[in-house]
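Kindly inspect both lines:
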Amino acid sequence: MAPGLESIKRRLRKSVYIQPWKSLYILYLVSTVLVFLPIWGVTYLFTRPRKTWSWSLAMAIAVSRRLEKALSIISFPDYRAIQPARNAEGVWIDPVPQLITAELELWSTVANVKSIRIPGYWYGKSGLAPKPTAPVKSGQKVFLSLHGSGFTTMSAHPKGFLDGLPRKLVELTNDAPHALAVEYRLSSTYPLPEENPFPAALLDTLAGYNHLVNVMGYDPAHVILVGDSAGGNLVLALTRYLVENKGRTTAAGAPLPAPPGQLILVSPWVDLSNSHATPGSTAFTNDMDVLGEFHSGTGYLYYGALAYLGPFGMGMASYNPYISPACLHLGMQVKFEGFPRTFIVAGGAERFLDQIRTLRDRMAKDMGKDQVTYYEGIDATHNYIVFPYNPGCSETYEAIQGWLG
């Protein structure tokens, strides 16, 4: 491609993040949906991507796929401030430089990030205040929630559209009537400023966990980590950090909290490399998922991987278990001994299905099959339980409820 043409394309990509071009681009995406709606409507009367999909579900998924590109340019609440929230309460979470080990410090130095103060948002069971009173009652459980969306967009705030997961979970059991959603830093790269690569989000997640244990007074064994998509990746990274450093004291003289008691992983993104992108894999065959293609070197997910890995480069996804615990490359050495009992949710029609199955098998091998519960929604798309239009939501939440006990 001619250098001049490539320069023009780069400027055009950057312009969609600036007003008024941002609004015009969103308007363009919406207008294309309106154009395709009657085409989809007629087509899905006669044939659908999956036989089990209803006409309305096929339509909802088609619209979601088309509007996926808008996610990266929509503004959401972020780590810089606490935003007012309906039926939720924002709190400041203090940084935890005293809990950083030498390895994590090295990664932080390379990435030029440090532990900072961030917001978190409390969600409470119906009839209760969003935020519990500290110190909490002995034996009380709690959810620590980490949202998804490729490490680059969305929010823990209700305006981030992903509050449905923590809100639903607190209704499932009286033992855990509250959830703290961490507003971790989002990564970005060109055409936006290069900011907050790994391990920034891990540092923020560690701060959120410390807030529950050492500020609110929860027993680590009573903390339930939950994450969807990229949030599931962070759940595993935080747990690995706590398991591998269990019982240790940092150079600052601070003991690290014990690992959590339970994990819930919803469509976790657990391989940022291309190791599952083989002919016949679900990365290609499940092409009607709400997720776009990742392995072509373009698109929302590829941008997320580039932004998250930052100065480490894409190669780090092939050997670092904090990044890609399901990676199939020979250089990946990963173990799950010491991890707590885990519930994994996957969609049978999602692109990540193969890598999630790899994760399931590795965890079951190291932890024992009785410690890993796997639930696969039939013909369900990525992160399906977060979106109420998916018919399998109720059954999946019932399975989680039974697992919670």
